[in-house]
User: Which sequence fits this backbone?
């Protein structure tokens, strides 16, 4: 099957910009609770089937969220950089997560609503409409959180309820 993009016509708003941010922040809140559920000694070391440890995946999520929102707000995109030095510390990861949550709110407020329909090259390499990039950011977080749920279950830990965002 050929991979092709579907083109959608401009439509009236389905949800507001503020509702979309609340949706994303709900996912981020749940991901934070998943980070909290990990034992410190397993967060950056435990993996299944050759996948990265969840601490490394969380660094990717940090590298996308705020720089992504800043890029959407300014149309100036940094290179994607997942090399966040957290010293393999759960506490430092949680602190970075909380700081990113506040910064995300800051940059989100600066994104012009009409800009979501524009085309951008996220992180200098992923060309798509801004709203498509944003949906990818959210989908990517959900995907990695799903991997973390598998890890937690493999460690004998019941993860947070996924519907409680």
Assistant:
């Amino acid at each position: 099957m050929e991979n092709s993009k579907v083109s959608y016509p401009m439509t009236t708003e389905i949800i507001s910009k503020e509702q979309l941010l609340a949706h994303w922040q709900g996912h981020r809140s749940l991901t934070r609770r998943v980070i909290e559920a990990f034992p410190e000694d397993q967060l950056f070391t435990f993996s299944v089937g050759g996948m990265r440890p969840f601490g490394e995946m969380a660094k990717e999520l940090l590298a996308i969220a705020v720089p992504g929102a800043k890029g959407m707000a300014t149309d100036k995109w940094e290179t994607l950089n997942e090399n966040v030095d957290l010293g393999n510390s759960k506490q430092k990861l949680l602190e970075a997560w909380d700081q990113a949550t506040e910064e995300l709110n800051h940059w989100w407020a600066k994104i012009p609503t009409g800009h979501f329909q524009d085309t951008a090259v996220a992180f200098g390499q992923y060309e798509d409409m801004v709203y498509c990039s944003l949906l990818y950011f959210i989908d990517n977080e959900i995907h990695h959180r799903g991997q973390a749920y598998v890890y937690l279950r493999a460690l004998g830990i019941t993860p947070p309820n996924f519907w409680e965002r």
User: Anything to note?
Assistant: The chain has one domain: 17-154. Residues 130-154 form the longest helix (25 residues). The radius of gyration is 17 Å. The mean pLDDT is 94.
